[in-house]
Amino acid sequence: MKNKAFGLSFCAMAFIFAFPAISALAYDAAPRVAEKGNLSPLYGFVAVFSLALMVGYLLWYKKREIKFLLLYCCVAAANVGYYMLSVADTISFAMWANRLSYLGCAFSILMMLLIIAEVCGVKMKKGAKLGFVAITSAAFLLAATGGWLPIYYKSVSLTSVNGMTVLVKDYAPLHILYTVYIAAYFIIMGAIIVRARKKQEAYSVKYAMFLAGIVFTNIAVWGVEQLIKIEFEFLSISFVTTEVFLLLMWLIMQDYDKLSEGAKSIALATAESNGELPPDIEDLFHSFSQKVLTLTASERMLLQYYIDGYSTAEAADKLYISINTARKHNSNLNRKLELSSREELGLYIELFKRAGRIEEIVYMK
Asked: How many other C-beta atoms can be found within 10 angstroms of the C-beta atom of residue 99?
């Protein structure tokens, strides 16, 4: 599958980008790691790799999804923050690095939630998305007050552990709110997966279990860090593996969608040639008609010209728009109607005509 091949190539390219920098860091830092147990080079490795993944996604994948782009940026920001904190030599620099890592972590979890919701077929309203963004922003701003106001940290100081800078934090009562925020988001992710599986909105049991495994792994890593004092933020590695696995799963599912659309087109064409209508025709008519209602006026007019038998170039002339504008409308039309080709649209139009229901999708000015 092309997308699966892309995913593997993408990971390979990220490694190629990161390998020289990682090798240089390893050569320089190996003696210090061996002698003192300094973990800051490991933070550096993870930061470089996450940045390479972000750059690779930007350069290589043309059909970029904004949620994945934001996830890659957030994970990179978190890991750069962890590294900067590990090498900080002043409390001011350390606090800014700490804020950067909190910014990346808070919004990485939000992006994970939104991606899992979309993969599971849960359509969030704009208000719900804005609500999650507001909650995430509030959680980050609370954590960012550290060093300025004594509401998240009572006090902070720097210490050195085996040559690595560590922030010594005395938590204030409101720190529990950030913990509740993370726990709540992970619970919501789990609930979305369970709901999708019960309603059979997830693609398969395997996909649902795979998503559940991703969420559970992050919960386990975060939980262990809360219960056991560890001088390394293992979430930095967990987030990187999560973004890679989510992207691979997304690409595989896109291949699945293409195969499904192809099978649907074949079924429609077969029904057309046999003079028969598919058994689930009523659901098909209703679903397609509802999608048509989401089109803009310009897209509806273009669809009407397609119904009347015009080509894209001819429709552009009729609409007094450029061919590039017509192609843009056509692309949006295909996306909204979930079509893979003009031929598939032709099959739908013919089906509506044969059933005497073409008025359900024609454009009435």
From this structure: 20
* Residue 224 and residue 312 in one domain: no
In a domain, 271, yes or no: no
* String of DSSP letters for 245-294: HHHHHHHHHHHHHHHHHHHHHHHHHHHHHHT---TTHHHHHHHHHHHHTT
Do 252 and 281 have their domain in common? no
**What is the rounded CA–CA span in Å between residue 330 and residue 336?**
10
Name the helix (H) or strand (E) containing 179.
helix 175-198
Q: Which residue, 243, 251, 223, is CA-closest to 114?
A: 243
Q: Residue 162: which domain range?
A: 2-256
* Dist CA 233 CA 236 (whole Å): 6
| Sequential DSSP letters for 72-141 | HHHHHHHHHHHHHHHT--SHHHHHHHHHHHHHHHHHHHHHHHHHHHHHTT----HHHHHHHHHHHHHHHH
Distance of alpha carbon 77 from the chain centroid: 16
- Strand runs labelled E in 96-219: 153-161, 164-171
Yes or no: say if 56 and 10 are a contact pair by the CB < 8 Å rule.
Answer: yes
Name the β-bridge partners of 155. 170
Dihedral sign (CA 349, 354, 360, 363): positive
Query: What's the CATH number where 327 sits?
Result: 3.40.50.2300
C-alpha–C-alpha distance, residues 30 and 32, integer Å: 5
Instruction: Confirm whether pTM is higher than 0.70.
Output: no
pLDDT tens digits in sequence order for the chain, 365 residues long: 444 444 444 444 444 443 344 444 444 443 444 344 567 888 888 898 889 888 888 887 666 678 888 888 999 999 999 999 988 989 999 999 999 999 999 998 999 888 888 777 777 888 999 999 999 999 999 999 988 999 999 999 999 887 788 889 899 999 999 989 988 998 998 888 887 777 655 455 566 667 777 777 877 887 777 777 766 777 777 888 888 887 777 776 665 555 455 545 555 555 555 555 555 567 778 888 888 988 999 999 999 999 998 988 899 998 899 988 998 888 889 888 888 777 788 888 888 887 788 888 888 65
